[in-house]
């Protein structure tokens, strides 16, 4: 695609005008810059969700792509290796954040992301629960069971702490389940009431 400012300069020069035109970014360049910034920041945020930076960047790239992309597209856009792209795409499919798309007459695999924000939230909440909360609950439950009945002050204090932590994490897990099964509008209404 030719540079719009260079085309304008050529056109005006041929008309006999001598002008200085500031190199103003085109709409396409502005969009690319904004998208690149989003992909980079989403990658940084992803590490706080318990996923690696590249996986989050691939998710951001696909979430903002107007069309499904191939592994080669992802590699070129993010400047990553085929192995890195392939393993992270596979993991995103396993999470349910992206899906493979079959295109008639194409042998390559195409990928597109879930774009519904509420659906993304529920998927991330479900996966975090499975990977983080459930193992934590299992450890707390085991520690509480093993320390139950220890008749020393330290044993009683430890058991009580484990039981309280287990109760709290269990409550947080149930709340997460409840929120993620709500309809988006209803969840927003409840959140607004809680925050007001």
Quick one: biggest sheet? 3 strands, antiparallel
Beta percentage is 5-15%
Helix amount: over 70%
Estimate nothing, just give the exact number of structural domains.
Answer: 2
Text of the CATH class of the largest domain: Mainly Alpha
Q: In DSSP terms, counting alpha (H) and pi (I) runs of 4 or more, how many helices?
A: 8
**Class computed from helices, strands and strand pairing:** mainly alpha
Strand arrangement within the widest β-sheet reads 1-3-2
Low-confidence stretches: 17-21
Task: Write structural notes for this entry.
This protein is mainly alpha-helical and about 200 residues long. The chain folds into two domains: about 25-115, Arc Repressor Mutant, subunit A (Orthogonal Bundle); about 115-195. It contains eight helices and three strands. The chain has helices at about 5-15, 25-50, 55-65, 70-80, 80-95, 115-145, 155-180, 185-195, and strands at about 70, 100, 110-115. It has a three-stranded antiparallel β-sheet with strand order 1-3-2. Helix 2 (about 25-50) crosses helix 3, helix 4 (about 70-80) crosses helix 5 and helix 6 runs antiparallel to helix 7. The chain is elongated. The two termini are about 50 Å apart. The model is unreliable at about 15-20 (pLDDT under 50).
């Amino acid at each position: 695609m030719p540079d719009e400012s260079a085309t304008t300069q050529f056109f005006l020069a041929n008309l006999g005008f001598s002008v200085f035109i500031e190199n103003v970014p085109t709409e396409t360049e502005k969009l690319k810059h904004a998208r690149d910034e989003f992909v980079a920041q989403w990658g940084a945020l992803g590490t706080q969700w318990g996923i690696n930076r590249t996986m989050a960047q691939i998710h951001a790239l696909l979430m903002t792509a107007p069309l499904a992309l191939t592994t080669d597209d992802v590699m070129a856009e993010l400047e990553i290796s085929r192995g890195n792209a392939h393993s992270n795409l596979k993991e995103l499919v396993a999470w349910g954040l992206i899906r493979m798309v079959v295109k008639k007459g194409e042998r390559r695999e195409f990928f597109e992301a879930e774009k519904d924000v509420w659906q993304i939230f529920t998927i991330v909440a479900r996966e975090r629960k499975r990977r983080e909360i459930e193992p934590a609950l299992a450890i707390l439950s085991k520690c509480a069971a093993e320390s139950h009945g220890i008749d020393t002050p330290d044993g009683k204090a430890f058991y009580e702490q484990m039981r309280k932590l287990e109760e709290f994490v269990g409550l947080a897990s149930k709340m997460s389940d409840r929120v993620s099964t709500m309809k988006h509008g209803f969840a927003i209404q409840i959140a607004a009431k809680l925050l007001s």
